[in-house]
Amino acid sequence: MDSKNPIESSPSIEITLNSSSRRSNSSSHSKASRGNSVREVTFGDLGSKPVRYGSRGADSEGFSGSQKEISDEDARLVYVNDPEKTNERFEFSGNSIRTGKYSILSFVPRNLFEQFHRVAYIYFLIIAVLNQLPQLAVFGRGVSILPLSFVLLVTAVKDAYEDWRRHRSDRIENNRLTWVLVNDQFQQKKWKDIRVGEIIKIHTNETLPCDMVLLSTSDSTGVAYVQTINLDGESNLKTRYAKQETLSKTPEKEKIRVLIKCEKPNRNIYGFHANMDMDGKRLSLGSSNIVLRGCELKNTAWAIGVAVYCGRETKVMLNSSGAPSKRSRLETRMNFEIIILSFFLISLCTIVSICAAVWLRRHRHDLNTIPFYRKKNFNDEDKDDYNYYGWGLEIFFTFLMSVIVFQIMIPISLYISMELVRVGQAYFMIRDTLMYDEASNSAFQCRALNINEDLGQIKFVFSDKTGTLTENKMEFQCASIWGVDYSGGKDSSVNEQVGHFVQVDGKILRPKMKVRIDPELLQLSRSGNNTEEAKRVHDFFLALAACNTIVPIAFDDASNPTVKLMDYQGESPDEQALAYAAAAYGFMLIERTSGHIVIDIQGERQRFNVLGLHEFDSDRKRMSVILGCPDKTVKVFVKGADTTMFSVIDRSLNMDIIRATEAHLHNYSSLGLRTLVIGMRELSDSEFEQWHSSFEAASTSLIGRAAMLRKVANTVEKSLRILGASAIEDKLQQGVPEAIESLRTAGIKVWVLTGDKQETAISIGYSSKLLTSKMTQIIINSNSKESSRKSLEDALRMSKKLITVSGTTHNNGGNSGGAVSPVALIIDGTSLVYILDSELEEQLFKLASKCSVVLCCRVAPLQKAGIVMLVKNRTSDMTLSIGDGANDVSMIQKADVGVGISGKEGRQAVMASDFAMGQFRFLVPLLLVHGHWNYQRMGCMILYNFYRNAVFVLVLFWYVLFTCFTLTTAINEWSSMLYSIIYTSLPTIVVGILDKDLSRRTLLKYPQLYGAEHRQESYNSKLFWLTMIDTLWQSVVIYFIPHLAYWGSTIDAPSIGDLWTLAVVILVNLHLAMDVIRWSWITHVAIWGSIVATFICVIVLDAVPTLVGYWAIFDIAKEGSFWLCLLAIVVAALLPRFVVKVLYQHFSPSDIQITREAEKFGSRREFGAVEIEMNPILEPSRR
Amino acid sequence: MSNNTASSSAGANGSADSAAPRRNSKRPKYSRFTQQELPACKPILTPRWVISAFMLVSIIFVPIGIASLFASRDVVEIVDRYETACIPAQNRSDKVGYIQSSADKTCNRTLRVTKRMKQPIYVYYQLDNFYQNHRRYVKSRSDEQLRSRSGENETSSCEPEDVINGTAIVPCGLIAWSLFNDTYSFSHNNQQLQVNKKGISWKSDRDHKFGKDVFPKNFQNGSLKGGAILNTSIPLSDQEDLIVWMRTAALPTFRKLYGKIEQDLLPNDEILVTLENNYNTYSFNGKKKLVLSTTSWLGGKNDFLGIAYLIVGGLCFFLAMCFTVVYLVKPRRLGDPSYLSWNRTPGGR
Prior knowledge:
The complex is a heterodimer.
Chain A (H helix, E strand, L loop, with lengths): L5 H4 L9 H10 L28 H8 L10 E5 L3 H7 L14 H12 L3 H14 L8 H34 L2 E6 L2 E6 L8 E5 L7 E7 L5 E5 L1 H4 L4 E5 L2 H4 L10 E6 L10 E5 L2 E5 L4 E2 L4 E3 L3 E8 L5 H4 L10 H34 L28 H15 L6 H19 L14 E2 L11 E7 L5 E12 L2 E3 L15 E3 L2 E5 L7 H8 L5 H15 L4 E6 L6 E7 L3 H12 L2 E6 L3 E6 L2 E11 L7 E7 L5 E7 L1 H7 L6 H16 L2 E11 L1 H16 L4 H12 L4 E12 L3 H10 L3 E5 L4 H10 L8 E5 L4 H29 L9 E6 H7 L4 H11 L2 E5 L3 H14 L3 E6 L5 H6 L2 E5 L6 H5 L2 E3 L5 H38 L12 H11 L1 H10 L5 H6 L5 H4 L6 H25 L7 H23 L5 H21 L10 H6 L2 H28 L3 H11 L2 H5 L15
Parallel strand pairs in A: 15-29, 15-33, 19-21, 29-32, 30-31, 31-32, 33-34, 34-35
Antiparallel strand pairs in A: 1-8, 2-3, 2-4, 4-13, 5-11, 5-13, 6-7, 6-12, 8-9, 9-10, 14-35, 16-17, 16-28, 18-19, 20-21, 22-23, 23-24, 24-25, 25-26, 26-27, 27-28
Chain B lengths: L1 H11 L34 H28 L2 E5 L13 H6 L5 E7 L8 E8 L6 H4 L4 H5 L15 E2 L2 E2 L5 H4 L5 E6 L2 E3 L1 E2 L6 H7 L30 H7 L7 E8 L8 E7 L10 E7 L10 H26 L11 H4 L5
Antiparallel strand pairs in B: 1-11, 2-10, 3-9, 3-11, 4-5, 6-7, 6-10, 8-9
Keywords (chain B): Membrane, Transmembrane, Transmembrane helix
Pfam family, one (chain B): CDC50
InterPro entries (chain B): CDC50/LEM3_fam (IPR005045)
């Protein structure tokens, strides 16, 4: 385990975003997601965007319009470098953390309390307590609490182990060392001893021990880079700033008198709100001034900060919470059957009590003389009734006693077996090598352990596009520069190009990523500034290299010591791709400090002063940078989405070029490429001066900073000259088209919900085979409620017509192929605004359910969740959401099953998900293979557990009918308790984990087999009732064969009890064996081992002289009739089941049955030829 | 194994950019276990299997059934129900009163041997409608007390027959208290038939459950006598009638071994039984029967198992025939994809 990252390794600390704050954040930024070519994701990262000029606080102020005053009661006052004063008034938490739930003392009560949240446990507790009453003592004291205590113990041991691991990681964490300012010098101190107000010094690559406000850093401008991978999983570097005012202070030498007034600890990792009073001046602090616990300091020699939140009040700790718990559909179903079983139980008990009542009534005068009853205690002086409380009470007690005796009708062991089985299934899913993603080095993760089997019943898949269907790995594809389309690089392979490189300090510096290069363009870019064309190319690439917030980091190439690789760290993958592209064409960004950037242009190092940078924002949808060039000119470079860029481009200039660029843009976006338009202009000195003064004013203003900055940006971003446009390919993930095809064949509807624009979404739809040319597209783009209503109605009519038409043609043709000409619905977010949460929802649902594909573009995160709810509320079908970004969190949480892609966009989706994996295509094995198996296994297991316990209870019941209804059990009480724990539990767990009805290959070859789960083939009420009838028959056989064979013989109760015990265990295990499909050695061991174990247990129990049944088994086993009874029971009990099974398999074989046979007997050729896994789905062969 | 290639191919086409070697790969280790590819046998119910299974069962069951029937028929059993017959006609209106009275309850019965009975002939008494498995009853004993003298006062489970006048009853409890006390003596041609009452109980009970140092004490001293009185000078381990009785019967109709006649009886032998009809089964309409029976390898006389085996065997034979016909008339090719639902119902998905 990596001890450097205890936060990550500690299982309990997980970061989930406060969903409410998240939602408000995302909704207020929802416009950002409409940014033309800027990815929908960006808004999620807004909080961490580095804004050099003007602190990050600006953004949050922007929304409120003015600086928010923190009232005193809401504030926490931190006296910097004065922890005593800081901590004297308020009890701030220390920095030691405790993620362990229990201490040694609290473990037992707390753990028990938590375990008894389960209704089933309470039921068994009540029964155990009832059994302790002397009047009701059916079982011995020890015996009666055995099953419950066993279950509790197993869970407690599991919890204790987990908690011990948490405590261990806490201890490691708490004892880490850091440098803390004590008595004016930095000393090493343990993390747990850090207090709020102390000044802490962090060195590069160290982990931050608490949340602290930056005071100064090694960088002269106060920049610090942090990696927040432990916090939100994003591996890129984020920039944080120390306030200019505190930069100059050296805390060792001079006393700092600073008071920080900050908000109370909260969970928002993207927001921070504080004021700093320093030397009478008041400064505002925002989230770019705070570094959070768990982050690592990178690329910065040291940083000094003051601790403001410690220990459990840090944001990372406040955010640690487990995965949301969902309940499996099967379990909900099962609860219904459990209710039926409890009705059975109650009716059995009622029958017994009524019979007992009648018997007592009829014999009420004889009770004293009947030798086996003898109501009165004649030896007592006053001849009291012994253990007799009157007719009514006796009946009541009989009822309660029968509940105690028949308690296992409700299978307690089922709950624990289900958990064990799920753990086992999860183990196999995690260990599946086919669901391991090499690229991100991520294996499958099972975060929710209670919905494994739901994977087998998914009917709707809601998928995000970016990062889910696509790789979210941007690749620069082509560019249109000065009206010329350079996209010739298509054919040349990347590998042939050595790529651009630069010599630095005797080392070769080379960009990490290789980019496909258009030779013609390369030629042009190298030709210098000779021609007009070349000049534009020069400017274009300069813009690409400069107009971004990328931080270049050079690191040694492990394979080649003479080469250094240049890694571009940045927030937006688009910017990275553009920077790499610029580097490939010889414009390599090699250094960025706060004031300047160094770009190596064709081997010549040039230094540009960054005079100003206007952040991307959702209104402008563009960003700009003002560069002071080496030739003393000042230039503005702007890049942004086409819609907003063309409005600021001077249309009077170069009209033809603008037209050509627009045409190219159209081409690019129809290819599914993401486009950005780039423009520039030179600033005259006066313009620059004017801009500069207003920029300074805006960035230092305290009130409404963001709005003012935006205004300043607008003044400079105007009448631009167009340079060209870039096109970036959002690469489809590997295997996505095949995966979608498979899912569709399996009868799963795939809906894509994306924030991208319509054209991009449709083009991705085509390339991922979601849309085909055969499909009729219905597109709904409406701007009002009325028009949405109208277009919905039209669409409904049209879809009806289409379906009927295709229905008839299909009948005539008799063609059974893909059948119905499919309809695709494409709808955008604006229309959804009017449709969702209104009466139009119903119509949309009707329409959508007729369509085989639904594509929603430009949707906000909350709308994604709304669409999921639209389906979830109206059908009982299972829904699955898959996504990778923070914007998918709400939809992942809303769907029945949430799948997170552990991709580039951080870990928020993974944190919110139930399952996490590396690639979209793993959805196919996850659903079709593991989902199928899990569901099949779980369904069988539940039914079997019902059967297993019911058959035992019924055997007890039949016997009770022949004991004067007094709830005697012939079966040893230990045996009846061990029955569901030892005798029969292991095989069902093993089979539940290991049995496979079909091989992985078959399941992938015939995705249609997934339909079996949609039809609930392995668990439905018909099966339940059939099983119950079978149970009844089997119990009759088990009970009555010995009963009749030994009627009127000398048989004693323990002996016949042993016979029943063995018979029931053998039968129940053979019953399971009949359903086992794959017999591996483990299955053999479990099933036959259980039978042997039962024999051993029975023998051991009968070798204890103090028990009534001493030596019974040896006595009865001597007789031939014992063995004949066993054989007859097994055969006669299983006969009907066997016959029904054979008949059913012969006359109406299920798909699973047929394919299983085909697997075994089908020609080797047919099955051998099928390539594994992701191959396109073969047309089902048909004769 | 094809899966091997599958996993490696999936690995190979991973991604191009993972140039940097990953030292701590999270790639799950491949093993046949973790990939759920353990070698396994996958039995399928083919017609041949089904028919041979049925045939096999019938081939095994029918002979066993016949053998058990023969064994049962070989057992010679004489049953004499006497609980009413042994009450003088004038007392039959108040049987309970009669049985509780101190009148002489000797009764003579004559049994006729129908078939030759080979020794040992077991003498049983059979009680009907006597619930020795009644919950109050079965719990009313103290195994600790029976086992050793030191457990003498362990009588808490024995209520209401636990102590008398403050001292423990040995053996305590309802079971012991209600010990059967009818006695039988047999004579044949005016010659006493010896009934061997040694060894009628389980050896394991005598050795381990009933102590050699435990003697009856305060037994049947209460106002209501339940049954037999024990000789206080004989240790419990030798009180075989008690030991037999204390092995409580499983079912309400049961037999208990009374003794063994180690002498052959010939057909038409008349056996005179002199019995003491002491035991009160009248309060609950219990029947009492005297049974003389030989035994076979299968135990006593009971046709049930033989018949059951014949029925099951016959049924299986019949089913085997049926399935043969079914498979001949309406065969189905196993694994034929044309039966798949999406191939059968066109367009259905």
